[in-house]
Amino acid sequence: MSAIFPKWTNWAPLALGAVVAVIGGVVTAGVTLYCTPKHTRVGYEPVQPVPFSHKIHAGQMGLDCRYCHNGVEKSWFANLPGASTCMNCHNQVMKDDPLLAVVRESAATGKPIPWVQVHKVPDYVYFNHSVHVTRGIGCVECHGRIDQMDEVYHAKSLSMSFCLDCHRNPAAHIRPTAQVTHLDWQWSTNAAEAAEMQATNGAKFVHDWKVESLQSCSACHR
Amino acid sequence: MKNNSNHLAPGVTGRRYWRSLDELADTAEFKEWLQREFPQGASELEEGVSRRHFVRIMSASLMLAGIGVMGAGCRRPEEHLEPFGQQQENYTFGEAQYFATAMPTRGGAIPLLAKSYEGRPIKVEGNAEFPGSNGSTDRYSQASILDVYDPDRAKRFKNGGKIVAPEDAFAALAQLSQAAATSGGQGLAFLTDRSTSPSRHRLQDLISQKFPNAKWFAYEPVDSDVQQRAATQAFGQAVHPVYHFEKAKVIVSLGSDFLGTEDEVQNHIHRYVQGRKPESGSMSRLYVVESLFTLTGAGADHRLRLASAQIGALAAALNAAVAGSTFTAPAGVDAKWISECAKDLAANKGAVLVVAGQTQPIEVHLLAHAINAALGGVGTTVALHPVTPSPAGNIGDLAQLLNAGSVQTLVLLGGNPVYNAPADLNWAVTQRKAKTVVRLGYYEDETFAQTDWHLPAAHYLESWGDAVTSDGITVPVQPLIQPLFGGLNELEFLARIAGETQTSAHEIVRATFGGGDEDWKKFLFNGYQADSSPATVTPGFAGTVPDVKGAAPSASSLEVVFYRDAKVDDGRFGNNGWMQELPEPITKITWDNAVLLSRRTARELGVENGDLVEVTLNGHTVIGPIWTQPGMADYSLGIALGYGRTVAGRVGTGVGFNAYAIFTGSYVATGATIKKTGQTYVIATTQHHWSMEGRAVVREANWAEYQKLPDFAEKMHGEEAPVIKSLYPNPLDEAKKTALHQWGMSIDLTSCVGCGTCVVACQSENNIPIVGKDQVTRGREMHWMRIDRYYTADPATEDTQKSILEQDSFQTDEKQQFAAWIDEVQAVNQPMLCQQCEAAPCENVCPVAATVHDQEGLNVMAYNRCIGTRYCSNNCPYKVRRFNYLDYNKRPLADLKGTLYPTAMLGSKTDGELDIVRWWRDPNSGMRTEDEWDLIKMVKNPDVTVRMRGVMEKCTYCTQRIEHAKIKQKAKAGASDNVRLRESEGTVPKTACQQACPAGAIVFGDVSDPESSVSKLKALDRNYTVLGDLLTKPRTTYLSRVRNPNPAMPDYREWPHSFEEYEKHNGNPFVNTPESAQKGNS
Fold it and tell me: Residue B208: pLDDT above 80?
């Protein structure tokens, strides 16, 4: 009877298991790496209708984010500036530059500039800018170093787990409210010291300002 | 950001794609395309491109497209953000703006605060700043916002049914004006709806001056003009009565549904409940005499069901009894009822109020005024406001002129006379006798076909105007948006007819107002003109008391009562889906009207629910379904006006039957007969079962017992299951310790009258779809909150009650119409919405944790997580969860009235599994048409998810409002700990139902704050939980209902019927208490 199953069949289940494990692992890893927001969103960098550089405006010239995004402390929406805001400076600076023709036209006719949306959460997520920036969550936490970007790209995943990482532990991210729009601000240039100061001050802010660690559905979904 | 908060110039309104087509037509490319016979490249390849090269380019672009799909295609589609060209000052995108305005009604106006989001109105609330207002509204104003976005609105200027340019219509108006100027208005007649607008009156006067021969007529099918006429006759000067129910101790309603369907209900309810607070130490008493069962009757302490035609005789008897003279009671009425009622009235001199209903003839009103005057009500409970009487004639006079051929031009302003004029005027033909008919109308409805010129009217939220409220205060009507379809405002329309050069409604209203710019700004900001109300007068009774005799109706000569519908009014809300689907407050019928009659009448006539009968009155006939209404007067038929529209639009056409077909101008008519047609009809009702079966769902007591046992409701708490210590502690117990607030709600059943305003407000706030009649019959209505109405009766008459419990419940629902107990009933109302149980049964059974608690005690729904198992709804003891069986938001309006139970259910467009086949063939089939989409999207609240098919939904205490308030407070707090919402600081939000409630019966707030109103209410003795014995620990609690009957009355009983029913089933709840000795009725 020994002839029915040759000896190598003893190893077959193990080999099959190993193959399944490898294939499963590769598929899982592939999906995790390439089909999650970290990869589908991060790096998205559409070409905008006006070659506006945040690196120049926010980085080199140090314009405060709120000069243009003036709704950020009042509304869920940070607001995109109207062309008339651009013209406050550009009616003097580069006032005949062909790159700004679209802006001048918009300011003159009221026809909006069709900026391409970069950062977006799903419709069922009710993210609110005002409550984050007024309570010590820096712009950089979600948008990255905008002040170093010529063309804005999606720097963080903005996935649900990304939100929850911070909501579960706000102390690790909270900063003095005066430093919210300073993208390059750090507690200290020494990384170890900065981490320690974040830990102590973060915990203090969370306690003093009664910052809630909101993880219930109603915080974001309505 | 596409919409500008400021209004666009008239030239650039209209649909985006039309605009882009127009713009396209001007471009060089388009012109070139027109000139070429074939598009470029269609017939030949361009120079320099060989075939081989072409193929290569094609392959390369395909490859690129492939990469694009792999790369960019995995991402979402590209979306654009379009900011203003010119930054707007004082406008923050994403934050709603509020503007004071008012909804004009026939006899006044309702001051409103309209919410505008991205430049479009999405919700109205009452203007709480208005003197005497509690910031509430009525049903109609809540629903009126949907009419702005009605895809069936009149959108085009038309001449003889053909579209014309607005300029041509204006030219026609100018011509009309010139012709009238030459002839002095000879042959010119106006038929208008009623209005209180000072600007409109000014223009009407101007037209009368310019064209002295022009004639004015006014018509309202449901007219409350009798109130003013009667008061004027009774007091010898032109006055309008305003009733102050809050100042009355004894109120008698003579067929007046002042809490339900009369004008000004929101004021009446607000005032009435102020006198009905048990904790204040005294309560007013309400006697109601009526034939229909109305909300007022449901709230009555003593209700006498009496045919409407006999109410006059009863009023005369009551007047005689008050005066102390002898009287004869109308047939079938206990004389003691009248004499004791009169005694109670006489004992409360100076605090009595007798009101007669809008359906009652002027004699009854005169009798009411006589009693009020005799007992010192005038000047206290009845405030008389001087008015200028309207000189307009009535529609009958106009019909005579038309028939005589003396009207050349007929101008119709509002109204829909072809549909709702009295049947004997044969209006469709009569109107045509004028040479030219010009109309400003909101819909292309029944009257549209009989007009020459039809101009689309603007909604009140689209136009400037003004109005005077019933108590004489001038209010502005401010537009929130430019007319969506370029409609015309009534002031602009009249100004053009008058030949004025100034035709801007804003300028007209501004000129009427006069005053300085600061005053004007203040007027608009406040939403009313302070001190604009004239002083009230207190003249003595100057009328003669009429002698009224009313014959009792009989089976061979039935009485018909035509009443204003609680939903569609006189038909004007016929195309409003929210109103059609709102359950009628008493019958709970949706999408229909019915012939209401009493059980006894139905038995004698041999008809039962759903039988289609022919009602014949004065030679006119109409066919409608029977509905047995508990508590109706015998031999009286109640028929709601406003249904049976033939040209209403996609929603309203063909709903119900048209009572105007037998209506000849008097609201109570006798001599009707009914005949069975042999056919039956399905009526969609949302509450099939009428009895509480002795359960303590609504708990009520009479005033005397309440004073002895204030916590009687708590004693009726059922036996709880033993508490077994759980291994898994409720996480809320832990979360409570650190959460900032704990939300809760208290609903006062003594205050609630069941008007249903909250239901419409909730629908508007929370993007609740309408489902249509077919779906309602399947029990799939989507209202997050409902008002349960139960009938209760003396257990001795509940002959079928015992067997009911043993029978199949579907059978029972059908059979209850035959049970004798429904003749003499009391009714109770109970708003029922998600109770936000702390130990929520729904949460335990959700396999995907789509419904869970948040730390503040809300039972929240994560819609995007719901997979639609419906276990939660199954496990909910309160039945407040709603499931989207179909994609109601995408269903075309025309499908709302689909056939009942179509045979090929799986083949229907949006139902069942074959959806995928439908989708494969055409992804857009069975969806809303584009015009519906464009408009319906605009009315949605952007703060609330629009749910799709397969998702469970329910009330979450308006979590969007809570979150908004919390975010505002936190943003304000910044780097401080002042993050808690406090009622004392006015930062706690109101839920939509609470804000709309005229009675103030719903109070929401933070139960962890001992100083909050809701905490104080929950501490009252009357507080109880519904089904609290299930240990669900609901956050919504109720305050028991207290009635205040008169012990001397013949129909007095020590306890309300509902308590007696409870006692019969469960025994005396006070047995084990020391107070049990005081308990009566056993």
Answer: yes
- Residue B1077 within a domain: no
What is the per-residue pLDDT for B97? 92
**In this structure, are B909 and B1021 located in the same domain?**
yes
Query: Would A37 be classed as within a structural domain?
Result: no
Quick one: pLDDT at residue B471? 86
In a domain, residue A96? The reply is no
Same domain? B273 vs B376: yes
pLDDT in tens, B759-796: 999 999 999 999 988 889 888 999 999 999 999 988 88
Domain tally for chain A? 1
Model confidence pLDDT, tens digit, residues B693-738: 888 899 999 999 999 999 999 888 888 878 777 778 888 888 888 8
Tell me: do B706 and B578 sit in the same domain.
Answer: no
Nearest to B981 by CA among B972, B992, B969, B973: B969
> CA angle, corner B1003, sides to B786 and A124, nearest 5?
65
Contact check, Cβ <8 Å, A115/B80: yes
B583/B497 same-domain check:
no
B948 & B973 share domain: yes
Decide if B790 contacts B961 (C-beta within 8 A): no
pTM summary value: 0.89
Same domain assignment for residues B642 and B704: no
Neighbour tally for B567: CB within 10 Å: 29
From A103, which residue of chain B is nearest by alpha-carbon distance? B85
The 3-state secondary structure of B774-818 reads HHHHCCCCCCCCEEEEEEECCHHHCCCHHHHHHCCHHHHHHHHHH
Chain B residues with CB under 8 Å of A210 CB are 740, 977, 979-980
pLDDT higher than 90, residue B743: yes
Residue A203 structural domain: 63-80+118-219
A105 in a structural domain: no
Choose one of B386, B402, B434: the last residue of a domain: B386
For chain B, say whether A128 makes contact (Cβ under 8 Å).
yes
Q: Which domain holds residue B437?
A: 167-219+394-465+483-513
Q: What is the CATH number of the domain that holds B333?
A: 3.40.228.10
Arithmetic mean of pLDDT, B900-927: 54
What residues contact B1012, with CB distance under 8 A and at least 6 apart? B983, B988, B1005, B1006
Co-location of B80 and B211 in the same domain: no
Contact B157, B438 (CB under 8 A): no
CB B767 within 8 A of CB B882: no
Least confident of B38-47, B618-627, B725-734, B949-958: B38-47
Rounded alpha-carbon distances, angstroms, from residue B48 to A185, B30, B53, B407, B978: 58, 24, 9, 76, 74
> Quick check: B76 and A75 CB within 8 A?
no
Nearest residue of A to residue B958 by CA position?
A222
Torsion region of B715: left, alpha or beta (phi above 0 gives left; psi -120 to 50 gives alpha): alpha
> To the nearest whole number, what is the mean pLDDT of chain A?
91
Residue that wins the pLDDT comparison between B291 and B15? B291
Report ipTM for this prediction: 0.89
User: Which range is least confidently modeled, A22-26, B111-115, B1066-1070?
Assistant: B1066-1070
Same domain, B43 and B78: yes
Q: What residue type is assigned to position B445 of the chain?
A: D
Using the beta-carbon criterion (under 8 Å), do B959 and A209 form an inter-chain contact? no
Residue B483: is its pLDDT beyond 60? yes
Question: Token pair for residue B189?
Answer: 């007649």
Q: What is the CATH number of the domain that holds B676?
A: 2.40.40.20
